[in-house]
Each structure stands twice: as structure tokens, then as C-alpha cells.
Design a protein that fits this description.
Elements: E1 7-12, H1 16-27, E2 32-35, E3 51-52, H2 64-80, E4 85-93, H3 101-113, E5 124-127, E6 140-149, H4 151-164, E7 168-170, E8 175-181, E9 184-189, E10 198-205, H5 211-217, E11 226-237, E12 245-249, E13 255-261, E14 265-269, H6 286-297, E15 311-320, E16 334-339, E17 349-354, H7 360-370, H8 397-411, H9 417-427, H10 449-458, H11 464-471, H12 480-493
Parallel strand pairs: 1-2, 1-10, 2-7, 4-12, 10-17
Antiparallel strand pairs: 3-6, 4-6, 5-6, 8-9, 9-10, 11-14, 11-15, 12-13, 13-14, 16-17
Helix pairs in contact: 1-4, 1-7, 8-9
Length: 494
């Protein structure tokens, strides 16, 4: 007799794509299992440039369909998660070594008109003389709209919503073997299941850079054309006080961003390199750090040096090889490899190839459609993520969060304003679950025992790294002694 399926769908990979698929499937009434070998968003999904954007540079590579889809998603995602996503204006300086002004204006006109922009401000020509600590030679440019996102928190909230809708989410659980068993899948893991395998009718392989390894464990044939591309970023002391980000054109034809980050810093990135992309975990190389510092030096009067870098990180994107020679030109679109085994009645394995944070929601819809799950499609476009059930007041971060900050301040009168702002930005209305009464001891820089308990019981945080670098960016402020004390506190709590 065939063993019963415990789940309709098992999703392997707790990055943005896996969490989005689990959320969408659970919301459609499927029984869902989400397995992640490490922490949620531990890999590529927490190593992005932190943008919800159409991808202006993808127009240059004629990725019109991808850009249109991503542009449409900007305001959809802003509406359902206004605490972790908000509009940001980007300045694109005109420089002699860059694209001509007519080309940029044409691209920006398309950017404004091809994606259903409604609330975001349109492109404008701007005078940059004396602005944003730019060098004297930079005097004119354009300004356009995209959105900022806390990438790791987005993943956590997708998983939280999936769990609230009935999904089982298990982290620190590595899949060691996949095998078809009857008309379903037997899933063996190294995780907390007492050696017993999980069973599911369908499996989605959303393991990001590890998608090929999961296919190997299922003894499935990997697609022949895959590219591993590493993108690196640096964080430096803030280059200027302007709230706008910068889109920087470089002499080699690449671009990078310089983005205000965590109030006191500037985030600069990204690179695109296939060299060293197999390292686990990936790290920004000395050459990449120097490259990003040199990029900033072309534009800013007081540029950073490698010695100024307070943090660097890198992530690997698994991209479909479309034949483009340069890694920065490889498509960021997503593709699926569907394996149904020997016949049409065999259990399906759907592997997700590529994708970007901005299109995670539509990717999830497309994945479920490929599996033949069509009921209740589209619900994720209007259902808010946890904490996002409020109307933002304006177009910038402070106004966006004002309604929630006022609610938190009313019930947590002893918290500093900076902490209230951080809580509103991280949790939205979910902060009202724990930001009241006695929040316990301050564990450093406004992180209280009540907040830590929320992270451990509601957001799967198990280590100090989970708390300081993914659930928050307090790692930029904590000393090593404070990190060790937090790790000890979490160890004693578990």
C-alpha cells in the first residue's frame, strides 16, 4: 500500500522564490512544507542591492518583457508591504564617458510608461551642480523612481505568512535525497524529523545556486546552460546627507548604485563576476572592493577607500545562459525545468532557474501554474504581508511609516524615537504584538528581550547572526562583545 502524502507540495529553498511559492500555495489551500538547509534568506536573497526596480539597464539588453513585469510589481509590492518597501528617487548623472543624454531620456521615458506607474513620481531633468557631494564636473542629470526593500525581511515575512496560512516551515534542514515513491516523493533530510522522511505529492526545487545539487539528489538531468554569477557590495560611512540614491555609469559599460543605507552608511554595488562564484559562502574579493571604491571615486568628492569599508557581502545568482558573453548581460528572467518522470502520472519536480527579488510574486504564480494549480490565482497581489496592513502617508520612508510609529509610541512610551522608527520599519503593525509594557532588558542598541523573543518564536531566528544580519542590520552597530553576549543569551533561551 502506498504511504500517505503528508503534503500536497514540498518547497526546497528558503530564499525569496521558495518562500513566495510556499506562501502562494498555502493561500490557495494546499498543504505545504518549506525546507531550508540554513536560515531563511541566508544566501542570495539577503545579498541583493535591496531594490524593487524595473531594471533600467535591462532595457539596454532588450529585456522588455522582464522590465515591464518588474515595473508593474513595484507598486503592487509597495502596497502589500509598505513597512519594508518604499519609494526612492534615483539620480542618474550625465557624464562624458556614459550613454548620451538622448539615449538615457528615451530609456527613462519607456521606464515611466511601460509598467503601469500610478503613484510613483515621473522622471525629471535635474541640476546637480553642488548636489549630493558630486565632483565639480557633474552638473546635469535625470531623476527617476524605483523602490527600496529590506530583502531578508521580505523573505521572512513571506515565510511567516505561509506559516500563518498553514504551511510548515523548517529551517536548518538539509535535503539529502529525493526519490519518487509511488505517485509522490520521498524526501530524506538531515533535519529534525527523527530520521523519518517527508512525503509530498509535488516538489519545487527553489534552492537558488544549489538548484543543481538538489537535482543531483533527485537523480534528475540538469539543464545544460546555467551560469553562476557573483555580485558583491560594500557598505561605507555615508557619502552625503541627500536621501536620493545614485545610478553610476562606469567606463567599462557597467553600472552600479550608491544608496543611502541604515541612516549612517552608503551601500555601493553590485559587481558581476563568474570568477570565484563556486565559493561557499561567497565573499567579496579585494579586487571587487577596490573596483567599487574606484567607481565611487569617479563621482564623489570624498570617495571611500578599501580601508573605509565597514561591511562587505556577496551573493551568487544562478542565471540561465542566454549566450551573452558578459555576466552582467545574462538575463535576470526566470525559467522552469519541469520533470514529470517516466509518464504523465509521475510526481512532478519543478526546478526554478533565475529570477530577481522584484518578480518573486509573479514567479510564484507562474510556478504553480506550471504544476497545474490554477485556483485562486492572483490573491497575493492584494493581501498584505504581516505588518503591512496600513496605508502609508507619503512617498518617503519617514512619511510611509508615520501611522505605525504613532501607534507604537502610544503604547511604548519609554522607547527612544530611533528605536520606534526601526521597529516600525522592520515589523509594521506586527510591532504592536510585543512593543508594549515591560519589554525587558535592552540587549544593545534598542534590541530588547521582547523583540528577541518575537524573533525566536515567530521568525525562526536561532543565532545571533540570524538576528543581527538578516532580521535586522544591527550587526553594523554591535561590538564583538555584544555579539557574544547576545549569542549566549540566545543559547540559554533555547
Amino acid at each position: 500500500m502506498e504511504p500517505p502524502f503528508l503534503y500536497d507540495l514540498a518547497v526546497i529553498g528558503g530564499g525569496v522564490n521558495g518562500a513566495a511559492i510556499a506562501r502562494d500555495a498555502a493561500g490557495r489551500g494546499l498543504s505545504v512544507l518549506l525546507l531550508e538547509r540554513g536560515d531563511l534568506a541566508q544566501g542570495t536573497s539577503s545579498a541583493s542591492t535591496k531594490l524593487i526596480h524595473g531594471g533600467l539597464r535591462y532595457l539596454e539588453h532588450r529585456e522588455f518583457s522582464l522590465v515591464r513585469e518588474a515595473l508593474h510589481e513595484r507598486e503592487v509590492l509597495w502596497r502589500i508591504a509598505p513597512h519594508i518597501i518604499w519609494p526612492m528617487r534615483f539620480v542618474l548623472p550625465l557624464v562624458r564617458e556614459g550613454r548620451p543624454a538622448w539615449m538615457l531620456r528615451a530609456g527613462l521615458w519607456l521606464y515611466d510608461h511601460m509598467g503601469g506607474r500610478e503613484a510613483l513620481p515621473a522622471t525629471a531633468r535635474v541640476d546637480l551642480a553642488g548636489e549630493m557631494a558630486f565632483r565639480e564636473r557633474i552638473r546635469q542629470g535625470f531623476e527617476y523612481s524605483d523602490c527600496w526593500v529590506d530583502d531578508a525581511r521580505l523573505v521572512v515575512l513571506l515565510a511567516r505568512d505561509a506559516a500563518d496560512r498553514g504551511a510548515e516551515v523548517i529551517t536548518r534542514c538539509d535535503v539529502t535525497r529525493l526519490a519518487r515513491e509511488g505517485s509522490g516523493w520521498r524526501i530524506e533530510t538531515s533535519g529534525p524529523n527523527g530520521g523519518e522522511p517527508f512525503r509530498a505529492a509535488m516538489v519545487v526545487n527553489a534552492a537558488g545556486p544549489q538548484v543543481g545539487a538538489v537535482m543531483d539528489r533527485a537523480h534528475e538531468t540538469k539543464p545544460p546552460l546555467l551560469r553562476r554569477v557573483r555580485g558583491s557590495h560594500i557598505v561605507v560611512p555615508r557619502l552625503h546627507d541627500d536621501p536620493r540614491a545614485s545610478f553610476l555609469q562606469l567606463p567599462d559599460g557597467r553600472i552600479c548604485f550608491a544608496i543611502p543605507y541604515e541612516h549612517r552608511f552608503t551601500l555601493i554595488g553590485t559587481t558581476d563576476s563568474e570568477e570565484g562564484a563556486d565559493a561557499d559562502p561567497p565573499r567579496a574579493s579585494a579586487a571587487e572592493i577596490e573596483y567599487l571604491c574606484d567607481a565611487a571615486a569617479r563621482y564623489f568628492r570624498h570617495p571611500p577607500t578599501p580601508a573605509d569599508v565597514v561591511w562587505s557581502y556577496a551573493g551568487v545568482r544562478l542565471l540561465a545562459d542566454d549566450g551573452s558573453g558578459k555576466p552582467e548581460a545574462a538575463t535576470r528572467g526566470y525559467h522552469f525545468a519541469l520533470d514529470r518522470g517516466a509518464d504523465a502520472h509521475s510526481a512532478p519536480l519543478l526546478s526554478v532557474l533565475g529570477g530577481k527579488i522584484t518578480t518573486h510574486r509573479t514567479l510564484a504564480e507562474a510556478a504553480l501554474e506550471r504544476l497545474g494549480i490554477e485556483a485562486d490565482a492572483g490573491w497575493t497581489a492584494t493581501a498584505p504581508l504581516p505588518g503591512g496592513d496600513f496605508e502609508p502617508d507619503g512617498l518617503d520612508e519617514a512619511d510611509n511609516l508615520l501611522p505605525v510609529e504613532q501607534e507604537i509610541a502610544a503604547i511604548a512610551r519609554n522607547l527612544p524615537r530611533g528605536t520606534i522608527h526601526r521597529l516600525a520599519r522592520a515589523y509594521g503593525t506586527d510591532a504592536l504584538r510585543f512593543a508594549r509594557g515591560d519589554m525587558g532588558r535592552d540587549l544593545g542598541h534598542g534590541l530588547t528581550e521582547a523583540e528577541l523573543d518575537h524573533l525566536m518564536t515567530r521568525e525562526w531566528a536561532m543565532t545571533a547572526q540570524d538576528v543581527l544580519w538578516r532580521r535586522s542590520k544591527l550587526g553594523l552597530r554591535f561590538t564583538q562583545a555584544e555579539v557574544e553576549a547576545l549569542a549566549l543569551r540566545m543559547g540559554s533561551a533555547s
